[in-house]
Amino acid sequence: MTICAKCENDVNKVYDCDHTKFKDYCVECYQELHYNLTEESSC
Ligand SMILES: [Zn+2]
Ligand SMILES: [Zn+2]
User: Fold this and answer.
1) Partners of 18 in the beta sheet?
2) Which ligand is nearest to the CA of 33?
3) Whether the predicted pLDDT of 42 surpasses 80
4) For residue 11, is it within any domain?
5) Is residue 43 part of a domain?
6) Interval 1-41: pLDDT, tens
7) How far is the CA of 9 from the centre of ligand 1 (A)?
8) How many CB atoms neighbour CB 15 within 10 A?
9) Is 36 exposed, middle or buried (0-12, 13-18, 19+ CB in 10 A)?
């Protein structure tokens, strides 16, 4: 199990990219972050 760096939930799978500053985010936080970044290139 891994802790999401944003919501601090215990999740099975985490995602990271330069937008999360390479911290581990759960899928919900990761998608929410990218939802607000539509003007930038996605990854
Ligand atoms: Zn989260
Ligand atoms: Zn990204």
Assistant:
1) none
2) 2
3) no
4) yes
5) no
6) 899 999 999 999 999 999 999 999 999 999 999 998 876 65
7) 6
8) 19
9) exposed
Provide, rounded to the nearest whole percent, the portion of the chain with pLDDT above 90: 77
Give the Å distance between the CA of 19 and the centre of ligand 1: 14
Whole-prediction pTM: 0.81
Domain residues for the domain of 14 are 2-35
Which ligand approaches the C-alpha of residue 21 most closely?
Answer: 2
DSSP-H helix ranges across 1-43? 27-35
pLDDT reported for residue 10: 97
Rounded distance, CA 38 to CA 40, Å?
A: 5
Distance (angstroms) between ligand 1 centre and the Cα of 12 equals 11
